[in-house]
Amino acid sequence: MLSRMNVIRDLVGVDFPLFAFSHCRDVVAAVSRAGGFGVLGGSMFTPESLEAELRWVDDHVDGKPYGVDILVPEHQFDTGGMTIAQLAEHLPTEHREFLASLLKDYDVDLRLDGGHSDVPPATSPEIGEQLMDVAFKHPIRLIANALGIAPAWMIERGKSEGVAVAALVGAKEHAIRQVNAGVDLLVAQGTEAGGHCGEVSTLVVVPEVVRAVREVREVPVLAAGGIMTGAQMAGCMAMGAAGAWTGSVWLVTPESEVSETFREKLVAASSRDTIRSKARTGKPSRQLRSAWHEAWEGPDSPGSLPLPLMSILSTPAFSSIDRAADAGNVKARELVSYWVGQGVGLVDSVKTCAQVVQEFMQDYAEAVERLPTLVD
Asked: Which of 100, 114, 193, 335 is the most buried (most CB within 10 A)?
């Protein structure tokens, strides 16, 4: 395990290979300061807002390493070059009406907060490249991509800038393609993970990917999917992983971006309270099950739209839902949801990012100490 940790140290400059994916700059900075490796999810930002977020991280990370994750799907819905605002105008009437009726049933007023953005969707290649240009202006040590092969321009830019390029995969076939494409680091993500995920469990996909890529070339693999403790991290490293890529465990921290209502629902949730659904982005992603999913997966639903149309429809809706729930709308609380993995059942209280990192380190160390006792 130590040699694999050394590989990660050499690659991205972190001693303890606990990677924390978050859409919140506060989480990224806090985790890196505490000894982990924060990764900012950049796909929710415009190039201008990402620049502001990364400037803030630079000022608060105390010189510790961090990374950025952007989203450039390999298979795109053809937007015809339209902006988010233009695409919003072309959303099917039946989907608009279904959403309006759903929100009315829960006493939620839809607010667009100034309207839809007049820029292309964040998942479009042109925005992805602009976000990458912003990221490389900062002292990042890692840039990652999900939903398909990392674009050649990302891999080439990473190599020229001396920044490691990572890719998220959910199957060994995808891992082999990524390694052949030239990525430096793989994240083998099981179906237990929050957000966009495949169908294979972490316990299966991690050793499967480790074994498959070893036959091509040596590429370190991080385990992802349902990992909420240091003991789980140690178990994945015993299977050949070089560290852990985590996300859901940081949502319950006070630094995270989620609403207070959602944080309360997380603490109360069990591992059976998540659902893998297209009803938020148009691609299968794991979220906390709510009345939103019951409606969109129900018999009266017009069905989910493809990415990015479903995101354009759902994003302002969830902002309005969170706002209403936090203001005391009990009915709106039933709709509240966000991406979260099945490991949510292992979280029972709110802790700071620094506390979570320290508990991971201690739990990991205790698990590693137990391993020799299993062999007499």
From this structure: 193
* C-alpha distance from residue 84 to each of 232, 241, 262 (Å): 40, 39, 27
Residues 6+ away with beta carbon under 8 Å from 197 = 170, 189, 190, 191, 225, 276, 284, 285, 286, 341
Strands 142-146 and 66-71: parallel
Domain boundaries, the chain: 2-80+120-253+345-374
CA 192 and chain centroid, separation:
12
* C-alpha span between 40 and 246 (Å, rounded): 12
Cα 23-24-28 angle, rounded to 5 deg? 100
**Tokens matching residue 352:** 């700071």
Place of tokens 């495949």: 198
- Tell me: cis bond preceding 308? Omega within 30 of 0 counts: yes
* pTM for the model: 0.90
The position carrying tokens 């603490």 is: 267
CA 98 to chain centre: 28
For residue 257, the tally of other CB atoms under 10 A from its CB is 16
Radius of gyration for the chain, computed over Cα atoms and rounded to the nearest angstrom? 20
Q: What angle do CA 39, 44, 46 make, to 5 degrees?
A: 110
DSSP 250: G
Query: In angstroms, rounded to a whole number, what is the distance separating the alpha carbons of residues 288 and 243?
Result: 26
- The per-residue pLDDT for range 49-84, each reduced to its tens digit, is 999 999 999 999 999 999 999 876 555 555 666 777
- The Cα 50–Cα 130 span in angstroms is 10
Distance in Å from the first CA to the final CA of the chain: 20
pLDDT of 204 strictly over 90: yes
3-state class (DSSP) for residue 187? strand
2-80+120-253+345-374 maps to which CATH number? 3.20.20.70
Amino acid (1-letter code) at residue 125: P
User: Per DSSP, what are the bridge partners of residue 143?
Assistant: 68, 165
CB 223, CB 17: distance < 8 Å: no
- Quick check: 30 and 353 in contact, CB under 8 A? yes
Count other C-beta atoms under 10 Å from residue 237's C-beta: 23
Is pLDDT at 147 greater than 70 in this prediction?
no
Cα–Cα dist 327/317, whole Å: 15
